[in-house]
Amino acid sequence: MPKRVRTITDLAKLAGVSPGTVSRALAGKSLVNAKTREKIEALAREHDFRLNQMASRFRRQKTGVIGVVIPLGHDRRQQISDTFFMTLLGYLADELTERGYDLMLRRVIPDKDEDWLDRFIGSGMVEGTIVIGQSDQFDRIEDVADGYRPMVVWGNHQEGQRHCVVGSDNRLGGKLAAERLIASDCQSIAFLGSTDPIEFAARFAGAKAVADKMGVSISVLPTHLNPDRAADEIAEHFASSHSDFDGIFAATDLLAVACLKEMQSRKIAVPGKVKLIGFDDLPIASQTQPPLTTVRQDIAAGARCLVDLLLRRMNGESTESLVLPPKLIARQTA
């Protein structure tokens, strides 16, 4: 029997186009040429598929549940017990409970399930969806946003994107970190972390812009986010003959803490020999010895904004993305 067309992705495969093209064609967007639009519309009629059929079902059937999904396409071994995830999830749970909603959590590995987002929102179990992190799934999220309104994403905002985002100004955060390191006389900066996730790439881009302007060298020390792998990779970086940097900007506080531990085991004075800055300002940042200088993103405010915008979108409103200003928290590591 022919496969049932349940999602935009299913219809896109039949039509031989991208899911975004299907979304735009069925929404009547002029960006799709007439011949392609007619083909897609004919297939949609043949399979009784409507772009907003899932959304209409949600309007008729209230579940009292908000779905929270964490895509880990950039690092499948990252854990949702990661302190950043748990901190944001805690604030989200508090906000949703206050508004009378329950939370359903899902961790996904996108390369194992390319329809991960369509399947989640089409399950009929959730009234709205919060995606934590764009990972390497920006295009997938964009495609779904064309036909699915009740969704808000924690992540990095790019000019012209279609999905609604709440997140920090990551590029500005990177600039703040680099400015602090350079003001502390650092001449060779290392960015610790992968630049594959969109948020991390923006943090590195901001730091690099400042370093290039000031004539300071900056390089990337690629590191996974899984704690065990990160610890081993950081040790390898310090064992390398190229570890002559005097300033480190870590993509997250947890990477910064692991880095601090490795430097202490090697008797590298912080901040005497190497300055160190993290990103997030998680509770652990103030508890290290010495306390960690970091770039704060207001996670509590972010959670409130995510829930507020989602509920407004569930009520049919159109909302703009919100970019929250980061702040440098100067402690003792830089």
Automatic annotation (TrEMBL):
SUPFAM superfamilies: lambda repressor-like DNA-binding domains (SSF47413), Periplasmic binding protein-like I (SSF53822). Keywords: DNA-binding, Transcription, Transcription regulation. Pfam families: LacI, Peripla_BP_3. GO terms for molecular function: DNA-binding transcription factor activity; transcription cis-regulatory region binding. The keyword Transcription regulation applies. It comes from the Bacteria. Residues 6-60 form the HTH lacI-type domain. SMART domains: HTH_LACI. This is LacI family DNA-binding transcriptional regulator.
